[in-house]
Each structure stands twice: as structure tokens, then as C-alpha cells.
Amino acid sequence: MTLERINRLQLQIKPGQYFYVTDLINIRYLTEFTGSNAALLVSDSNAILATDSRYEIQAATQVPELPAVIGRNFPELLLSKLQKSEVLVEGANLSIDVYQKLVSSLQHQFSSSVGVIEALRVVKDDSEIELIMQACEISTKAYQDVIESVRVGQTEKFIRNALEHRMREYGADDIAFASIVASGPNSAIPHHEPTDRELQSGDFLKIDFGAKVDGYHADCTRTAVVGKPSDWQAELHSAVTSAQEAGRNTIQSGIQFTEVEKAVNQSLTDSGYREYFTHGLGHGVGLAIHEDPFFGRVEAAKIAPNTVMTIEPGAYLKDKGGVRVEDTIVVNSEGYVNLTNLPYELLEL
């Protein structure tokens, strides 16, 4: 797997060029090396990993196919002995200070190459999809357990802690991100941080959560209600759920991202809630919880098969309450497979 991914990158590197990779997620994708300090130099025909002495054994174990150099000054280790060359760097991952030091200390022609490896990561292979499926299964099992035990008087932090503990009990290596548990008026805040607010009868309870397995993430959101929903709560939840369904029903490989957005936005317009949908519709999921492709940035692009992404419309009524419905899906030629296939009915707690 390691050489296959590096080979795909090498097809985009010209003879005499080098790609100096410093983003740790991209290094992990290309090599499966998981250490916290590394750089990778790739030419059209070779690749070499640099890390420090803490990870010497780990590098030899995880990446036996690649030579590794050990030290702390990665530019010195990887670039100083090269003849003057064109070196591509990940501009989005380098500070101005680091970039200027490279330019001033090394006689290479440096240029920024943004998004090259991220584009390779968009289409997932079978092993990646399997890990994301495992993360999603753990996430949804944990949610179903915890949501059944939710009671009036529990705090947002208590519910968050219970959910994250249960995900780890079911085999998660870690949580995918800081879980969002938002009750009552807090549910109108798209990325609310859990507080000591106690759950009350009549509250919306919005939970955005996910597990991580071997570096790969899950992402899911459901919104429930404590007790019987009021008319406005039932209407709002129905509007968002219908919009998400409209978007999912358009998805298949080869369709433009903008077509999915149009379906969701039209559904929310028809229900009268479009103005309350204030964030992006979704994003890719993989080694990062938010990665390419991002709805809103790739409108004209077509969805490729084996893309794993979220679709997550929401509507948020300030100081009142909000709803988001989110799933992680994998796209195929016939449509998609929903990896976080929880019920869509408004759950009454």
C-alpha cells in the first residue's frame, strides 16, 4: 500500500523535481508512518523519510520499504546534499518564517504546491473505507446506547462524557473530534461547546459525534427532543430531515456537487427555512475529520466513486433551538451507502 500511494504521487512529479512533504497527515497517508515528527522527500523515482531518534524503530517497523534518515534538521537531512533543483513544498503547511529559512539557506528553487496530496486522498481505497465503516459503526452503537439513558437534569457535559466513554468502550482509538452536545437554545449554535446546562423538558438535544479508528474518522449528527415536541420543533426537524433526504437522493458518482446543494437549498426554501442554514453542506472524511472535497468550494467538480463525505444541512433559530441531520456516506455508481444509518424520526426522550 505504501509504495502504491507514493507511486501515484510520483506520476505528478517531473524529472529533476522533488516534493518536500511536511504535513503529518499526508505523510501518514503516503507511508503509514504515524510518528509526530517527520518529513518526506519524494522524486519521480525515489522517496526517503526523515524523523528523529524517538521514532527510529517505529519508522523501520511501519515503513520498511523506505530508507529513513534520523535527525532533527529535516531540510538539512533531506535537501542540503541535492544538486540545485526545483523543490515543491506544501505551502499551506509552512509558516512564512520556515519558508524564508528554506529559501535563504538552501540553493534550490522552491515553489508552493497546494492540494496535490489532498486530491489523492479524496478517493478512498477498500482498506480506508473499511476503517471508516468501523468508526461509524462504533459511533452509532455508542449513540444508541447513550441516547436511551438520557434524562432530564443531566448536563451537556455529562452526556458528552458518557458518549465518548462508550465509543472508547466499543473499540475507538480516540474520538474523532470534540463531541457537540447542545440542549435547548444552545442547539441553535452550530458548533456549541458543551456546558453544565441541565437538560429540561421541551429541549432540543443536538449531538454531533464520531469515533476514530486507526486514524480514520466518523461524523454524525442527530437531533432529538426531550418529551413531546412542540409544533415548531416538529416542523423544523421535518424541514431539515427532508432537505437532507433531498440531497442524499441526488447523490451518485459523476454528479456535480452543486446539484446536491441545489436540491438541499430548494427543499429548505420550500419549507421556509433556507435563511437559517448558515454553514457548508458537507465535507470529505478520512484521515482528517474535515478534508477535501468541501461543498461550496468544488461546485463544478463531479463526485468521484469511493468518495467518503458528509451531508449535513441544519437550521438554527437564534435563542430558540436548532436542528442538524448529518451522515457519513460513501459514494458509488448507483448512489451511496450510508455508513451512519441511524433513524431519521424525531426521537422523543
UniProtKB/TrEMBL annotation:
Record keywords, A-Z: Hydrolase, Metal-binding
Coiled-coil features, chain-numbered ranges: none
Residue span(s) of domain Peptidase M24: 130-332
Alphabetized GO MF terms: hydrolase activity; metal ion binding
SUPFAM superfamilies reported in the protein's UniProt record: Creatinase/aminopeptidase, Creatinase/prolidase N-terminal domain
Creatinase N-terminal domain span: 18-123
InterPro entries for this protein: Creatin/AminoP/Spt16_N, Creatinase/aminopeptidase-like, Creatinase_N, Pept_M24, Pept_M24_MAP, Peptidase_M24B, Peptidase_M24B_aminopep-P_CS
Keyword Metal-binding in record: yes
Gene3D superfamilies on file: Creatinase/methionine aminopeptidase superfamily, Creatinase/prolidase N-terminal domain
Protein name in the entry: Unannotated protein
Originating species: freshwater metagenome
